Amino acid sequence: MSKVKTAVFKAAMSGLYHSGATKLLAPYTQGSGLIYMLHRVHPEQPEEFAPNRILEISPDFLEAVLNQVEEAGLDVVTLDEAVRRLKQGDERRFVSFTFDDGYKDNAEYAYPLFKKRNIPMTIYVPSDYADGRGELWWLALEEVVRQADRIELCRDGALWQLPTATIAEKKKSFDQIYWWLRSIDEVLQRQVVRVLAERHGIDMMARCRELIMNWDELRELAADPLVTIGGHTKGHYAVAKLSAANAKEEMIGGADRIEAELGTRPEHFAYPYGDELSAGPRDFWLAKECGFKTAVTTRKGMIFPAHREHLTALPRVSLNGDYQSLTYTALYLSGAPFALWNRFREVNAA
Fold first, then answer.
1. Residue 95 carries which DSSP code?
2. What is the per-residue pLDDT across 336-349, written as a single tens digit (0 to 9) for each?
3. Neighbouring-strand partners of residue 296
4. Is the whole model's pTM more than 0.85, yes or no?
5. Cβ(136)–Cβ(204) below 8 Å
6. Helix (H) or strand (E) segment spanning residue 35
7. Rounded CA gap, 217 and 224, in Å?
8. What CA–CA distance (Å, rounded) separates 64 from 61?
9. Per-residue pLDDT tens digits for 219-232
């Protein structure tokens, strides 16, 4: 989410909280439950320049959210159980916790919290990452900007020069480069970042092996019935930007690799990036054709009974490093902020 959208969303939530409107709206907006989305969980405090901090929360905050969910009377369920409840009209509200990318800290800091409570979690794994050759390009870009006083790259055939000497310049230039990279062709995006990383001495493969669980580590975690391993493509590409054939190959290829290594074929899938520009109706259909029981986006929203007809276009609610407050998460459980965001549409699969 851009800084402007973040500010608007926070302002809207503040208004909901102070007005007390959530209590009036909750019966109409809370739906059947929600699917939480997480990435990294670790206790280290971010540096002043840490544009990817939104992908990180602390173990203490995660534990506080688990307490909050329990106190609110929601059941923490597997995605299989969430589907069963939707299809059978079970009115008990639920929460599912999902983690993207397979970071090692999920096993070190998050899993023990779930194990202690005997509650389930799902981890979506891009198979190239577990193979140790994934490109976490957004982290590489952060490191490039952190190191450099100035960045030069080719954009649309012209030299693009950005200042990165001060923290303010680094933040602004990172945002400019990041959102440009998110807008362009996936192959070109990776080429640009590879050039930047090589120029600044950053080994993206080594960074992947440092941060992401390998197959042996995933195998150990997956041995616990509380842990579901889901698909997340092979190379973490925005499937909407790929041809239908290539998108399908990313989805099926990642699932094939997980099955070969872990012995069980993943039935659940997460679209990389997951926003409207990264996954759309064609991709929702492709995920179903590939045999996935569910597929989750990053579109904000609660789960409603109507989602039983849109199981490969499920919304999620991000546990975001910029929103580590139980005030925010209490609002999330009401569904009110997302009803306003989605103009009271329960299902957004367009």
1. E
2. 999 989 989 999 98
3. 270, 314
4. yes
5. yes
6. strand 33-38
7. 12
8. 5
9. 999 999 999 999 99
